[in-house]
Amino acid sequence: EDARVRSTATQGARMTTARTSPFPDSTVLGYPRIGPRRELKRALESYWEGRCTLEDLRSTGRELRERTWRRLEGLGLGAVPSNTFSFYDQVLDTAVSLGAVPARYRAGSPEDTVFAMARGTDGVAPLRMTKWFDTNYHYIVPEIGPGTEFAPAGDKPVSEVREARALGLRTRPVLLGPVTFLLLSQAAPGSPAGFVPLDRLADVVGVYERLLGELAAEGVEWVQLDEPALVADRTGAELEAVRTAYQRLGSLTERPGLFVASYFGHLGEALPVLAGTPVEAIGVDLVHGAAGYGFSGQGETAELEVLAGKTVVAGVVSGREVWRTDPQRALAALVALRAHAGRVVVSTSCSLLHVPYDVELESDLDPRLRRRLSFADQKVGEVVELAGLLDAAPLPAAPSVAAAGPATEEPGREVMGPASLLDAAGSPGAHLRVTPPGPVAAAQPVAAAGPVAAPGPVAAPGPVAAAGAAAEEPGRSPYPVRAAAQAEHLRLPPLATTTIGSFPQTGELRAARAALAAGRLDQDAYDRRVRAEIEHVIALQERLGLDVLVHGEPERNDMVQYFAEHLEGFAVTRHGWVQSYGSRCTRPPILHGDVRRPAPITVRWASYARSLTAKPVKGMLTGPVTIVAWSFVRDDLPLRDVVFQVADAVRAEVADLERAGISIIQVDEPALRELMPLRRASQESYLEWAVRAYRRATSSAGDRTQIHTHLCYSDAEQILAAVDALDADVTSIESARSHARILAEPAVAGFGRGLGPGVYDIHSPRVPGVTQVEAWLRAAVEALPAARVWVNPDCGLKTRTYAQVEAALAAMVTAARRVRETV
Ligand code: GLN
Ligand code: ZN
């Protein structure tokens, strides 16, 4: 009967394109690229610092690609993707491939062009960077104008196909789809009012047509076009763009099979639109979109009927969490799907970019925890095994896993063996998140049925949620009362200058921490090193004339991991690096149990810093939403409950800092926006509990204590209502890359608290000029009362050098003084 299904699929494919052979039975949507030992990070940074040549960098890239392809093939994966490698970012690569390179960035080689766009060059600011949907990966925002000349440029997708073929491998190139590419782009400066990048769809699709032709000529059988933007609410015009784009690409005569991948949620009203085009394969996320597709337990929804005759690439193994997949649930979903689709391919829910390489490297983890974990290579194993189980599962009755065939008896494969895969089903935390916990998913009941909704990818939250939250967590006086008490107590000038918290993490500091971990340095010697760094940072800030000082966070490897290491309920990995942007990686902790704070965490170093100066020193904490967002989180509790546990730990820390005489406490919540559900229907309830968690963490502070928060992004209009509800006294936000626009936002002008719109971009090594900062500050005091304007960089300084930081902060302080004299 399986053969019957396959031949139907083949016939279906034959109707649209003669070239297409059936999609292999298993694949992944993408794979990590930074290297298992962060080889790419090292190569990039050494190239940028002039320590190696472009040829050296290219050869590291080739080695990593070869390793990836051979690994995936070796793990038994049916279809291996290519073009998932990138020297910086796949959105940026797409812009370059389409020829969408603003003239100011053109450089001698494609790589240098990419780096110029991502990092800027002397005198040229880089493109904006922002978070990739609701993940902690950041992409570079392409700039598209009415005059952008699109033309195929470079040959990255094609050359990777050739490179793989030279190694004896056939691959499926992965491209960002045209609709998502344009929806993620921003209008080039100077574009006429009303212009949106999607207006250029026809031209962009033209370039994709040529690219598909080239790939077909190269013998490529399937191409993956990623369209994650389709899992957010889309307007009728945007859905129409989907229809036109794929109708056109589908009607090409010489082309590979088209596989359109969606992920991070369910397709909703985009599903019938896409299914109505000639694309042969559609990828659905049955982990994060499970509820939307009706896979939250019993049965599936009728909308799946539209998949008849299509190949469905079913993402049943999470590409984002690190828990082992529950094979029974996954298999049940696959079998149910098979009743509707022409063919079912087993896959990951999204690219494995978001998880570390290999749990086998984590020899220090408690074996009881390690058994429950699955990183990229284990997930590939799960996909392959599920494909085997699906193949053996009878049609059409519900599957019995016990009867799934001889494969379940295969002995001796500890992690990826089917026997252990089945074992995982009953263990806590090992469940496939078929119904993701918390309101994020709960509020998405078949959202496909709802009316076509809001324009942007993340719709603006209503202030309603905020009001509800305010009522829930009482404690502090109204802002004007607190502001007066703080003014009296702190006596700060207007346009007070400060930083976001971290100062450069020098190689020496990192080496000391590594030596401590390896037992080569004792705790006392390490503490002396930290103390010396704090002394240095305090002295530097006094010399520069900053008003509110920080201790510089030298003791922290990372703003989340540091807290995870000091809280119960978390485990940290040794090699579990995940790319955040470019060469930057994070090692997300694993939150696997109840969270508790056994002892104060930050009080000691904050107090030490305070003892060194008469100026106020800000205590520095990471907020509950961010700690959870940047960790891999247990899935046996609603996300909200986990966040509240963390909030209680932060609350205890706030109280201890206050008791130690720290009068300004910053609780960073840079990930507040990141966890925002992509569908509007779920956003309000998310914001309600996220805001409540923040207030729970901070509302014990007395009126004289000034609470600051920091957010790493700037879609001010979309988020400021919620930020206002956080009720922090001062908020610093990123804005240097889009300053003028931010200050024009009505939400900024109406912001009723202290606000520090970042005056320079810390992601780039460029040092800002005094006149530029001064001009921005003048604009800021036009928009807000000077007493509520704070002067700070966009974000923490840990990735910069002391030379850059000193020059940049000196310019910032000078500019603030000049403007202060005139207000
Ligand atoms: N306090 C942190 C720092 O300065 C904030 C970093 C962040 O927002 N990502 O490093
Ligand atoms: Zn930040």
Automatic annotation (TrEMBL):
Pathway: Amino-acid biosynthesis; L-methionine biosynthesis via de novo pathway; L-methionine from L-homocysteine (MetE route): step 1/1
UniProt signal peptide: none
Tagged with keyword Glycosyltransferase: no
Region (Disordered): 401-422
InterPro entries with a match to the protein in the record: Cbl-indep_Met_Synth_N, Met_Synth_C/arc, UROD/MetE-like_sf
Cofactors demanded by this protein: Zn(2+)
Pfam families reported in the protein's UniProt record: Meth_synt_1, Meth_synt_2
Keyword Repeat set for record: yes
Boundaries of every Cobalamin-independent methionine synthase MetE C-terminal/archaeal domain copy: 495-817
SUPFAM superfamilies: UROD/MetE-like
Domain spans labelled Cobalamin-independent methionine synthase MetE N-terminal: 26-340
Designated name of the protein: 5-methyltetrahydropteroyltriglutamate--homocysteine S-methyltransferase
Top-rank taxon: Bacteria
UniProt-listed Enzyme Commission number(s): 2.1.1.14
Role: Catalyzes the transfer of a methyl group from 5-methyltetrahydrofolate to homocysteine resulting in methionine formation.
Name of the top EC class for this enzyme: transferase
Alphabetized UniProt keyword annotations: Amino-acid biosynthesis, Metal-binding, Methionine biosynthesis, Methyltransferase, Repeat, Transferase, Zinc
